[in-house]
Amino acid sequence: MSTQPWSVVLGAGLMGRLLAHTLALEGHRVDVFEAQQADAHGAAARVAAAMLAPLAESAITELSVVRMGQHGLLRWPELIAPLPQPVFFQQNGTLIVWHRQDAGEARRFTQLLEQTQRLCPSLPQAVALNASGLTEHEPPLAERFSQALYLPGEGQLDNRQLLDALLHSLYQQDVTVHWDSPCNPTDFVPGTIGQPDWVFDCRGLGAKPQWSALRGVRGEVIRLHAPGVQLARPTRLVHPRYPIYIAPKPNDVFVIGATEIETEDISPASVRSTLELLSAAYTVHPGFGEARILEVATQARPTLADNLPHIRCLSARCVQINGLYRHGFLIAPAMLDALMQWLRTGQHGMADNWGLRFDTVP
Predict the structure, then answer these.
(1) Nearest one of 45, 80, 49, 48 to 231, comparing CA atoms
(2) Buried b (16+ CB within 10 A) or exposed e, 22-33
(3) In sequence order, which residues have a C-beta less than 8 Å from that of residue 274 and are 6 or more positions away?
(4) Nearest one of 65, 23, 18, 21 to 43, comparing CA atoms
(5) pLDDT digits over 112-134, tens only?
(6) Of the CATH numbers 3.40.50.2300, 3.30.9.10, 3.30.300.130, 1.10.10.10, which one belongs to the domain with range 94-152+215-303?
């Protein structure tokens, strides 16, 4: 290997930008190859709420993701701090609410969280709120809900600010980014003369030709401008048919989402999905009735058969990072740190502790 390692990163979504940024900080010469443009319109990370909620997500995922999410909550402030542009980050917890007719679904949800806390006691304990407690945490919601769960310590960030800040960091560090340049691992022979020392494949669904187990899971997100709504933290509505999350962002912008459809179709959102998301948001806070719709966006999340992430080595110097599913922002720091530990030391200690699959293609 040369004195200054030369690394190629395939894909400029969340994982690709974060990895290229980190490699450049460590002294690598870095080239990024992206099939689309700098605006990240082809990246699943652009269509996301970027909530950092390991306990809340434990209702639908495995302990390995929860543990990686705990790590991510600690690491994001450290990763954001040196970036050349500000990135909104808050850690005000998550609020879970439900309508009276959905109390049974709320009990089931609560039992899932309690099971996670027994298995992972380092998580902050969920706090049951009555009407007065809800008034203290989110006064605007106290008129519509009499009970809630508060999950302290959970957080969120602004996904688009982060993607922009990471891109500016790449340019500041003289990383060469090749837009409109689709590549795959077979285009390189890392470790040979005239070739990069390392190739890292972070293409998400773009890697499907080389990783046949990948599939897309469609998500739909609505961005609203709602100056009449005041929420201090992400709020989730428990519902048997259309559970939603509402994530407040800077400048009175709110991200509303939750849909998961087993398809790679990213055509515009259906009328039904849009009505259900907006109606559910309105039942949480009537102020959304006067909100302005900024965007209705769709994207397919890269997902493996078990809905869990995976790092695998195609060869000694070619690594694929994929399968982040709906947990990209939650677990990206853990994926990054596990990969960098292996790159520096050849060890898988972090990955093993979290239960992250990190192996070699037979």
Answers:
(1) 49
(2) bbbeeebbbbbb
(3) 220, 222, 296
(4) 18
(5) 999 999 999 999 999 999 999 99
(6) 3.30.9.10
Fold for the domain defined by 6-47+159-214+305-360: FAD/NAD(P)-binding domain (3.50.50)
φ and ψ at residue 162, rounded to 5 degrees = -65, -45
Alpha helices in the chain (DSSP H): 14-25, 54-57, 63-80, 103-119, 131-137, 159-172, 271-284, 328-345, 349-354
Burial of 346 (0-12, 13-18, 19+ CB in 10 A): exposed
pTM of this structure = 0.96
Which pair of structure tokens corresponds to residue 26? 């460590």
Tokens describing residue 295: 């965007």
Residue 278: strand, helix, or coil: helix
Q: Compute the distance between CA of residue 345 and CA of residue 57 in angstroms, rounded to an integer.
A: 31
CA distances from 345 to 196, 319, 361 (A): 19, 15, 20
Average pLDDT over residues 176-181: 98
Angle between helices 63-80 and 103-119 (to 10 degrees): 80
CB neighbours of residue 87 within 10 Å: 21
Calculate Rg over the CA atoms of the chain.
Answer: 21
37 pLDDT more than 60 = yes
What CA–CA distance (Å, rounded) separates 113 from 55? 7
